[in-house]
Amino acid sequence: MPAGGTSNLVENDVISKTALMGGGVTSPLQLKAAEVRSNRVNWQSYKQGQMISLEEYGVITRLDFASSDAESRALYLRNNSDLAAKTFYKLIQHIAKDQTIQYLLVMIDDLIIEDHSRVEMFKNYAMSVKESPWTGYFTLLTRSDGFIVNQASAIITKMACWGKDSMDEQNQHVYVTWLRDQLRIPNNDYTQSVCRCLQILLRIDGYRKVFFEIDGVSAIVNVLSSRVGFQLQYQLTFCLWCLTFNEDISSRLEK
Questions:
Q1: Per-residue pLDDT of the chain in tens (255 residues, 90 and over written 9)
Q2: CB-CB contact of 214 with 245 (8 Å)
Q3: Are 155 and 137 in contact, with CB atoms under 8 Å apart?
Q4: Contact (CB, 8 A) for 182 and 214
Q5: Would you say 4 and 161 are in contact if contact means Cβ atoms under 8 Å apart?
Q6: CA–CA gap between residue 229 and residue 224 (Å, rounded)
Q7: Which residue from 113, 103, 106 is spatially nearest to 39, judged by alpha carbons?
C-alpha cells in the first residue's frame, strides 16, 4: 500500500492544494542548494585520482543536471536504476569532502523531485544489499555541516512519503523525534526546512500519530509563541491543521 494509504487520498488532495498557498518563499536551504548546483564537481579529477571507478564516473556524469537533460536522464534511469542507486550509495559512503557530499545530495533530491517514483530505486537498492534505506541518510544527520544535515533530512522525508511503503515504526520514531528536536533549537537557520519536512510528513496519518505522541505539538506552539515571521507562522499552523485530520488527535487538541 502506498505510504499515504487510500483512506488519505481525499484529505491529501485538500492539504496539497492548501500547501500551494504558502509557496513562493525561498528558504536558506533552497538558496544554498542553488549555490551548490552552480559549483560543479570536477568528476574527471575524482576519476583520475582513482577515488571513483570508471563505471561510477560514467553514471554520475550521465545524471549530473549540469551536463544532461530530463529526457536523457529518464531514459537512462529506466534501464539503469539499480546501477544509479548503487553509485550514489557508494559515493556518499566513501567521499569525505563536504562540498562533494552537498552536490551529491542536491543531485539525489533533484532526481526524486523530477520523478517522485525514483525514491523506490534508492530504497530497492538498499534492500537488495540487505541495508536499511534510512541508515546512510540518518548518519548524515550527525554531520557538522548544516546544509548536509538538512538536505539529507529533505531526502529522508520524500523517501518516507513518496514511496510505496511508509517508514518502519522504529525509524519513524527516531526521525520524527529528530525533527521535533530541531524545532527546539534556538535560532536554527534551517527551521523553515524542518517545517517543510513536517508539512510533507504530517499529510500521512501514521506520522501524525508519532508526532503527537512525542509531544510535537508543544514544540510547534513554543516556536509560534516566539517572534517568528509570517512564513514560519504559516508553516507551523499548517502542521497543526494537518494533525486535525486524525479524529483522535483533533479531539485531544480541543481539550
A1: 445 543 444 455 555 444 444 445 589 999 999 999 999 999 999 999 999 999 999 999 999 987 778 999 999 999 999 999 999 999 999 999 999 999 999 999 999 999 999 999 999 999 999 999 999 999 999 999 999 999 999 999 999 999 999 999 999 999 999 999 999 999 999 999 999 999 999 999 999 999 999 999 999 999 999 989 999 999 999 999 999 999 999 999 886
A2: no
A3: yes
A4: no
A5: yes
A6: 9
A7: 103
CB 193 within 8 Å of CB 179: no
Q: Give the Å distances, CA to CA, from 185 to 179, 189, 190.
A: 10, 9, 10
Cell match 506520522: residue? 207
The pTM assigned to this predicted structure is 0.90
Dihedral sign for Cα 91, 97, 98, 104, please: negative
Angle, in degrees to the nearest 10, between helices 119-128 and 146-162: 90
Reference 11, options 253, 254, 250; nearest CA is 250
167: closest CA among 125, 132, 197, 142? 132
Residue 82, SS3? helix
CA nearest neighbour of 253 among 245, 180, 244? 244
Q: In 3D, which of 186, 181, 180 has the Cα closest to residue 225?
A: 186
Cβ burial of 75 (10 Å; 0-12, 13-18, 19+) is exposed
